[in-house]
Design goal:
Elements (H helix, E strand, L loop, with lengths): L3 E5 L3 H17 L3 E5 L4 H8 L3 E4 L2 H10 L4 E5 L11 H7 L1 H5 L3 E4 L2 H10 L8 E3 L3 H11 L9 E5 L20 H27 L3 E5 L6 H11 L8 E3 L5 H5 L2 E6 L4 H7 L4 E3 L7 H7 L1 H9 L6 H9 L9 H11 L7 H16 L11 H18 L17 H17 L6 H5 L2
Parallel strand pairs: 1-2, 1-3, 3-4, 4-5, 5-6, 7-8, 7-10, 8-9, 10-11
Helix pairs in contact: 1-16, 1-18, 2-3, 4-6, 7-16, 7-18, 12-13, 16-18
């Protein structure tokens, strides 16, 4: 019997790319795999009883430990940028059982390990490995085939308005009694209006196309139903909404990104795409500058126009804008573990495979549903949820409703020979351990 590995992709448009790449590698190593989402995580734990659970949030890792105590729990960080007051280390310091629930922690950069050692000096840090992130392997694959900036005619617009355009359709009024939610909602309204004005100006004053990429927690259908029509029929052929499952695939098609402060700046930087930050135009500069050190460094490194006129000029001049910044190179080393010398996916697979081999016959022997039956039932239940609400696919993954981009399998093909070498760690132990 093959060891079973459950991968929980927290948000479909942020996490499925790296989750799928890791899944392909695990399958080559002889594992049985299944990618779930938030809605079916606990059900899959109970029905399939995986030997290994790969998760991307602290809460779900603890759930896995409680529901299936015999499983190995792996934390694969999905977003390496966290302000210290809200970092994983800070959370684990206050919630020690959540840290203890983990058998393996796969971090982006050395910053997380440094924080754990400082905040939790008596905790076991041997289970924490710095491996960068498989998402950067996907990004590197796309970078090698990217067309020159001057050959691109699309301007990428990144939005971040889940408080006024929630992926489940939750109205803003639900949380307005909380002052912080009220402030966030007001800021989102003002920022949306400013970005709408910028888009209108680009459409009127240039020949560029506009591609809007909503935040992973937003409802994509709202953009088709309300936002696109708001610019008028004369511009409909120059406007598109991106719903691709890996942001790097989208970024390499853009002449420049126009965005509020966002982790997307890191991907844009690594892909050599100019990033035009609109925080001064939307009156969010001071707020984000003090929010976290990394945000301040992004603001100091990106192009931050004071007016929409300046933003338009930067868009026009995108091929001539300088990208490289020493402060960003250092930040990416600290937080992303780049350059890492060896593809992150290989390091992730090796760490997981070694963990399973080390536990050997100690892996639990509880029987679960056959994978084919699990997938069949899951597809039926997902279809039922989609019939109730088409917005369900905004956040939750299903293999029939979300087509994987081709570059994921292409990246896997590039790594195949090296993945085979990982089997030399103990080529048959992992399979026999679960028998």
């Amino acid at each position: 019997m093959k060891p079973r590995v459950l991968i929980r992709a927290h948000t479909v448009r942020r996490d499925i790319g790296m989750s799928a790449l890791v899944e392909m590698g695990l399958q080559q190593l002889g594992y049985e795999t299944f990618i779930c989402s938030v809605h079916n995580f606990q059900r899959t734990l109970r029905w399939w009883k995986p030997h290994v659970v790969i998760t991307q949030t602290a809460g779900s890792a603890h759930q896995a430990r409680e529901i299936l105590p015999g499983a190995l729990v792996v934390f694969l960080d999905a977003e390496g940028y966290q302000p210290e007051y809200n970092s994983w280390a800070t959370f684990w310091e206050k919630n020690q059982p959540y840290y203890d629930a983990l058998d393996l922690i796969l971090a982006w950069g050395p910053i997380l390990g440094d924080e754990v050692r400082r905040l939790m000096p008596t905790s076991d840090v041997s289970k924490l490995h710095v491996v960068s992130s498989p998402k950067f392997d996907l990004l590197e694959h796309m970078r090698k085939s990217a067309p020159p900036i001057s050959a691109r005619n699309s301007i990428g617009i990144i939005t971040r308005y889940p408080s006024i355009n929630n992926h489940e359709g939750v109205p803003a009024i639900r949380g307005l009694h909380v002052k912080s939610n009220l402030d966030s909602t007001i800021n989102s309204c003002l920022a949306y209006h400013a970005q709408h004005t910028i888009i209108s100006r680009i459409l009127r004053e240039t020949d560029f196309s506009i591609s809007i990429r909503p935040h992973p927690l937003e409802d994509i259908s709202s953009y088709h139903k309300y936002v696109i029509p708001s610019f008028g029929k004369e511009y409909s052929d120059r406007l598109s909404i991106d719903d691709s499952l890996d942001i790097s695939e989208w970024i390499i098609k853009q002449r420049a990104l126009v965005s509020p402060t966002s982790t997307a700046y890191v991907e844009a930087y690594l892909l050599n795409v100019p990033f035009i930050n609109v925080d001064r135009i939307t009156d969010m500069y001071e707020y984000n500058a003090v929010f976290a050190i990394v945000c301040r460094q992004w603001l100091e490194s990106a192009y931050v126009p004071n007016t929409i006129d300046e933003a338009i000029e930067l868009v026009r001049d995108a091929p001539n804008l300088s990208i490289r910044r020493p402060v960003m190179d250092q930040q990416i080393s600290d937080y992303c573990g780049l350059p890492c010398g060896r593809p992150s996916t290989l390091q992730v697979l090796e760490a997981i495979h070694r963990l399973v081999v080390q536990h050997g016959t100690k892996l639990h022997r509880e029987a679960g549903l056959p994978l084919a039956l699990l997938g069949f039932i899951d597809d039926l239940l997902y279809r039922r949820l989609m019939l109730r609400d088409r917005r369900h696919k905004n956040f939750h993954y299903n293999r029939n409703y979300h087509k994987l981009p081709r570059h994921i399998s292409a990246t896997f093909q590039e790594l195949q020979l090296e993945i085979r070498a990982i089997q030399a760690v103990a080529p048959s132990t992992a399979t026999s351990a679960a028998s």
